[in-house]
Amino acid sequence: MALKRITKELYDLQHDPPSSCSAGPVRDDLFHWQATIPGPSESPYSGGLFSLDIHFPTDYPFKPPKVTFTTRIYHPNINKDGNICLDILKEQWTPAFTISKVLLSISSLFTDPNPDDPLVPEIAHLYKVDRKSYDKTAREWTSKYATGN
């Protein structure tokens, strides 16, 4: 079941990818993918290209994929290990979700972080009390880690 579903999602992604995102298998392992998401222009992540690792469980789509950032990012919902605090990757997951939907949801975190459900409380606090400093640090990290410079 998992392999059939993953193969279908790969086909769908190749023929109708979500806005500017890309994803596909690492070598021939359909259960391990890499993805890229560009930082949206209206965010402090603008100009960055962020890489992610996607690992599908053998009982996919009944269990969510494990998605982690491999590019460092300054964000209240993403920690230093690349783990992402996103409800659809945890308790809100349903088999109706696809990798395309997951990538779009992660992309929306760039412009709409959730500081009320943070993975990194210090960053969430800064986001709430000093947005200018938060944006500045996020831009600096994007320039340092996500632009290939």
- Number of separate structural domains: 1
Assigned CATH class: Alpha Beta
The Rg value, from CA coordinates, equals 15 Å
Tally of helical segments: 4
Major sheet: size, sense and barrel closure? 4 strands, antiparallel
Topology as a string of helices (H) and strands (E): HEEEEHHH
Query: What is the CA–CA distance across the termini?
Result: 42 Å
CATH topology: Ubiquitin Conjugating Enzyme
- The secondary structure category is alpha+beta
Q: List low-confidence stretches.
A: none
What's the overall average pLDDT, rounded?
Answer: 95
Helix content: 25-40%
CATH superfamily: Ubiquitin Conjugating Enzyme
The CATH architecture assignment turns out to be: Roll
Short description:
The chain is α+β, with helices and mostly antiparallel strands and 149 residues long.
Describe this structure in words.
Helix 3 (about 120-130) crosses helix 4 (about 130-145). The chain has a four-stranded antiparallel β-sheet, with helices on one face. It has about 150 residues and is an alpha+beta fold. The model has no long low-confidence stretch (mean pLDDT about 95). The chain is globular and about 45 Å long. It has four helices and four strands; from the N terminus they run H-E-E-E-E-H-H-H. The chain has a single domain (about 1-145), classed as Ubiquitin Conjugating Enzyme, CATH 3.10.110.
How are the secondary structure elements laid out?
Blueprint: H1 2-15, E1 22-26, E2 29-38, E3 49-55, E4 66-69, H2 99-111, H3 121-129, H4 131-145
Antiparallel strand pairs: 1-2, 2-3, 3-4
